[in-house]
Amino acid sequence: MPYAVVYTPRARKELKSLSQDLQERVFASLERIRIRPRAFVKRLVGSPFYALRVGDHRVILDLKDGKLIILVITLGRRENIYRKL
Question: Residue 55: which region, alpha, beta or left (left: phi > 0; alpha: psi -120 to 50)?
Answer without folding.
Answer: left
